[in-house]
Specification:
Elements lengths: L3 E7 L3 E8 L2 E9 L2 H5 L8 H14 L9 E5 L10 E3 L2 H8 L8 H14 L2 E5 L9 H4 L14 H14 L8 E7 L3 E7 L2 E5 L19 H8 L6 H8 L5 H5 L4 H9 L3 H24 L6 E6 L5 H11 L5 E5 L3 H13 L10
Parallel strand pairs: 1-4, 4-6, 7-10, 10-11
Antiparallel strand pairs: 1-2, 2-3, 5-6, 7-8, 8-9
Helix pairs in contact: 2-4, 3-4, 6-13, 10-11, 11-12
């Protein structure tokens, strides 16, 4: 019998959980939350006890005793910028998750993990939250001092996939230069230089390529005019940038499956919008390759959209001159969390201390 690990990934309308025995998954569940259920809670943090009990009930229904756990690991939230790595959930981390800078379901991951870990008599961890910040100083500056560039990206999956690729090619992640594009509801493209993400786009706020739900980088003057047109509230604009931008704004859907179905039925607008999204990803990959001085060992495509053959072919056609293209489809977040917990349990690394 190996290490038994519970991984928890809270999302806006679901809580995904997985049980692993070492690297072997033994249970994977998606606990769905209806809009009506969510609406009962004024703030996301108010959902903590409710979601935790749902997780415990699901485990009990599957005849799993939490006392047999070796560790619990949750998705990290919008805490202060930190280095990549695994962090034990301590008082400081709990405080910053409860009082996070922004509302997001991921803030609940470490808190649910800590409460279940306490009941099990084991330790709780988070790993590579979206706020991982390893940017070079020059990557932080924009043309307006009050608007610095911020590192918020799909750090968990990007780091895990980068390490998996390094292992596949028989090298250390810390010895490679990689451009990694995570393509999901948001899209982040990052420059990984010898184990550090020295540049990336802020995928949470919709910076970079436009995505299924993100507007991407916009013409600044036109955005200012939109903000002061009197037609929209601040909340409306924020929704346009992240949630109702990108494919949703152009085509009324965030589903690449639906977009491809429309293209198959001869919808020319859907084809142009899909190609425009791919074109934006291609340009961002080129920018990150330049940030690495053109010394790129591989361009890695990951996230749910990496399942889409048409998207992968488009990007490959434009970017294969940069470096070999490697494709690792899927979000892989629960698996990535477990991988991070295992290296701690096996003594390969010591968890970092959040302070």
């Amino acid at each position: 019998m190996g290490f038994k690990i519970l991984a928890i990934n809270p999302g806006s309308t679901s809580t995904k959980i997985a049980l692993y025995d070492d690297e072997q998954p033994t249970l994977a569940l998606t606990l769905r939350h209806s809009a009506e259920e969510i609406a009962r809670f004024p703030r996301i943090i108010d959902q903590l006890d409710w979601r935790k009990e749902m997780v415990l009930e699901a485990l009990a229904k599957n005849n799993f005793d939490v006392k047999s756990l070796s560790a619990v690991i949750g998705r990290g939230g919008l805490i202060k910028p930190i280095e990549s790595g695994v962090y034990e959930v301590n008082a400081a981390l709990k405080n910053d998750l409860v009082n996070a800078q922004r509302e997001h379901a991921s803030n609940l991951g470490g808190l649910i993990a800590e409460q279940i870990a306490q009941a099990a008599g084991v330790k709780a961890y988070i790993a590579d939250p979206v706020v991982v910040d390893e940017l070079d100083d020059i990557a932080r500056l924009s043309g307006i001092p009050e608007c610095p560039r911020i590192s918020i990206f799909h750090a968990l999956n990007q780091k895990a996939i980068a390490r998996r690729h390094a292992e596949k090619v028989g090298k250390r992640y810390e010895d490679l230069n990689l451009v990694v594009a995570h393509m999901g509801g948001g899209i982040s493209v990052s420059a990984h230089c010898k184990g550090r993400v020295i540049d990336t786009n802020n995928a949470l706020d919709g910076d970079g390529p436009f995505a299924p739900e993100r507007a991407g980088t916009l013409p600044a003057g036109e955005l200012v005019d939109l903000c002061f047109s009197g037609r929209y509230t601040r909340h409306d604009i924020q929704q346009m940038l992240a949630g109702k931008g990108g494919l949703v704004a152009h085509l009324g859907t965030n589903s690449m499956i639906q977009v491809m179905e429309r293209i198959g039925q001869g919808d020319e607008k859907a084809r142009v919008v899909k190609d425009a999204m791919c074109y934006g990803i291609v340009k961002q990959i080129g920018a990150m390759a330049a940030a690495l001085g053109g010394q790129v060992d591989a361009v890695i495509l990951t996230g749910g959209i990496a399942h889409n053959k048409s998207v992968v072919e488009y990007i490959s056609e434009f970017c294969s001159f940069i470096a070999p293209i490697a494709v690792y489809p899927g979000e892989n977040e629960l698996e990535s969390l477990v991988t991070n917990a295992l290296v701690v349990l096996r003594g390969v690394i010591t968890p970092k201390v959040y302070a």
